[in-house]
Amino acid sequence: MNHRPKLLITGASGQVGAEFQALADQFPQFDFHFTTRKELDIGEVQQVRELFETQHYDYCINCAAYTAVDLAEKERELAEKINITAVENLATICAKQQIPLIHFSTDYVYHGSQNRPFCEDDPTFPEGIYAATKLAGEAAALKLNAHTMIIRTSWVYSPFGHNFVKTMLRLGQQRPELSVVFDQVGTPTYAYDLALAVLNILQQVTQGKITADQLSGIFNYSNEGVTSWYDFALAIFEIRNLNCAVVPIESKDYPTPASRPFYSVLNKGKIKRTFDLNIPHWRDRLMHCLDRLPKTIS
Ligand SMILES: NC(=O)c1ccc[n+]([C@@H]2O[C@H](COP(=O)([O-])OP(=O)(O)OC[C@H]3O[C@@H](n4cnc5c(N)ncnc54)[C@H](OP(=O)(O)O)[C@@H]3O)[C@@H](O)[C@H]2O)c1
């Protein structure tokens, strides 16, 4: 049998990590090694070194991150440790072993005042600790390992962990009315589609359709379409037939410790062209996710 490329997936119990697990059976050509924080704390340099000394990986997909956007304002050190130092460390080890590193980042790095979808070479204006640490982590990974692929994504949801969809379902069952901001516009990303896109890309490398060298640089990925959080909530309730009214409010009436961009739509032209990807519309994929979620969410 041909060599089965071995994939290390860190942060395997997070939203994106769990979707890689859900998809693994569909990609028998890959040998997956999933590690949760318990098995591999990416912030512990020695642990990471030892793992790479004992295992030979062909790709490292880093799904681990510090993702508590608001809490980061109080936990700068921890956010920096996981989103910058640990990423530097992973990139250095991957570079030594000549392994591509696939790493996720956020639309929050753009945070500009423009009203057209962001391209990868648009200027960055991260606001808040989380966004700043994610941008610094990207830069470090790109500098330390030439084979680094950064995927900037937005509004991630899935049947796993905490996210807007699950929160809306839970609150929508409990309350007759919910207020949701309508002045923040972007595109939801179904974590399943994001993980599937990465596996499709790696499959193309194994099939010789693209070279591993093409796995380098920054790429945007979200589902297609544009919406606001308000419209997203309406869609969730409509598809689930939940009798909960949604009241549109302004961001100024829902203050958060870290500010969010008003306009945060990603232009996916680069990833679609480079890897010949078809990206489904957010609403179609919301239905897919809702089909996987139980009727009641506690
Ligand atoms: N969620 C979004 O809306 C969003 C938007 C844009 C970009 N992104 C980016 O997309 C990527 C994936 O996000 P996600 O939504 O899947 O995040 P998530 O659900 O919060 O998962 C992150 C995972 O990282 C793990 N982790 C944290 N510190 C770790 C450490 N020191 N060592 C090992 N694992 C550690 C967490 O483990 P525990 O469960 O034990 O804490 C969790 O399983 C991240 O890079 C994030 O910045 C997310």
The CATH homologous superfamily of one domain is named NAD(P)-binding Rossmann-like Domain
CATH fold node name of one domain? Rossmann fold
C-alpha geometry:
globular
Structural class, by secondary structure, is alpha/beta
Q: State which percent range the strand residues make up.
A: 15-25%
User: Rg, please?
Assistant: 19 Å
Task: List the helices and strands in order.
Answer: EHEHEHEHEEHEEEHEEHEHH
- The number of distinct β-strands equals 12
Question: In which range does the helix fraction lie?
Answer: 25-40%
Uncertain ranges:
none
- CATH class designation of one domain: Alpha Beta
Q: Count of helices? A: 9
| CATH architectural type of one domain | 3-Layer(aba) Sandwich
Please list the strands of the largest sheet in the order they lie side by side: 2-1-3-4-5-10
Q: What does the largest sheet look like?
A: 6 strands, parallel
What is the average of the pLDDT values?
A: 96
